[in-house]
Amino acid sequence: MNRDRHIGRLGGLIAVGVAVLLAPFLWLWAVAAWLVWRAWWRQAGVRLSALDGPGWLLAAAAATLPAGRRDWGEAMAAELAQVPVQERAARWRFAAGCAWPGAAITGLGLAGVAACIAATGYYLAEFPAYQRADPPATLASLPPVTAAVLAVLLAGCLWLALRPPRWLLPDRRARRFGVGMAVALVAGFVLTTSRQVLGNPPGSEGMVFYLLIGPILVVLTGSAAAAAVGRSFRSGLWACAWAVVLGAPLLIAAWLAEALRWYQQGQGTVLDRAGGLGVGVNLGDAVWWPLVFLAVWAVPLGVVGAAAGSARARERGDPASTT
Fold it and tell me: What is the domain extent for residue 129?
């Protein structure tokens, strides 16, 4: 007991000593931070002090943008200035709408890439190869070509999430619809795989059917809605582009996660419920099949949907529908 008490006192003395030693440095950092803040406030304080709540929210969102995208923040601030100060609700809606799509796109893109890397790393560590029964062979779960394609995909998605081209930024409606479509695609995939359990009747063989029907339900209709709301064919195209970019890594990660559950239940591969193959085969399937269907099937559907959605605006004589 006495020994424990002495150890406790010694620990307390050490903590006090460390605090005393660090105190001057903490004060120095506090003074330095105050000086930096004062210098910044001298330049930006006059402008920011005149902002209301929505203005502060938009300014905070613009401050997180890289230098190449600051012009978008200035453009959004100029648009906010056109909304009367008396219309508080409208100003808050506009500011929140500007801040949310950028954060949602960045967060969703980073989450998809991180989940993809984590799932792929787990497969490579646990299932680096798989056995094929007919003809008998041992194959790598991630061949070099597939690995290169996955690396290019993740790098491209990460770049678009963090530094998207300027021509994709101004359309806030397209970004909102793109985020919603990407989430809907992945949610539909997970819901469909969860319902496919052993004993299901014929016609529920794997996820090929969802890869066909999912883009019709989500990308076609979503792009049409984006074009109709935005009164622009371009809005539908940009919404489709965001959906494909953000949805691809999330679909791959969801595919790999569901493949483990299917394997534990003895349901075979996620693609077509094929048996006699190791779980590692799902890694290649997860990379190639979503990419093929998104590029070959979902993108053209998005173009058709954008054309259909903008057609109604064109029928009403809206000139914006021609762009």
Answer: 101-322
